[in-house]
Amino acid sequence: MLSHIDQNNQPTMVDVSQKKVTVRTAHARTLIVVPSAVLELLEDGEVQSKKGPVFQTASLAGVMGSKKTSELIPLCHPIALEDCQVNITVNENRQIQIDCLVKTSHKTGVEMEALTGATVAALTVYDMCKAVSHEIEIRETRLIEKTGGKRDYRADGA
Q: How many domains does the chain have?
């Protein structure tokens, strides 16, 4: 059964009033494939653009996106985030890897905040690098891990 649909098939916010406050964490990841022309712009692990340092700007955008999740996704609870870290690197496959890690003490999880943060950071990378090439692919956004609440989750099943 979908959590945001009531018995009358109408959209509804999940009632979390009876849940306990627990520490909740989530880790989401987005992978971006960029052409070599973009990778060649890397200077000490950072792409520089006329708008400024791409990875630093995208990291800030990811944090801002995480904080605004309830304004962007219908029926999401507004959550005061206690921590949000967005880390952007080039991985061993020469893809830009964005990891968004979010933490709070609340009655509901922060998966959507982590997924939104990683996605907004990826869109910012695209926006700042599109002048070099439009052959940028935002390939994958997924939940890597969540803790707290009814059950924990790890993408690798561990």
A: 1
Which of 66, 129, 134, 136 has its CA nearest to residue 101?
66
HSE-up (13 A, CA, CB side) for residue 81? 24
Q: Is residue 16 part of a domain?
A: no
Task: Determine contact, residues 152/109, Cβ cutoff 8 Å.
Answer: no
In a domain, 127, yes or no: yes
Q: How far is CA 73 from CA 100, 112, 137, in A?
A: 17, 8, 23
- CATH assignment at residue 90: 3.30.70.640
- What are the residue numbers of the active site? 127
pLDDT digits (tens, 9 = 90+) for 91-124: 999 999 999 999 999 999 899 999 999 999 999 9
Of the candidates 108, 56, 99, 59, the residue with the CA atom closest to the CA atom of residue 81: 108
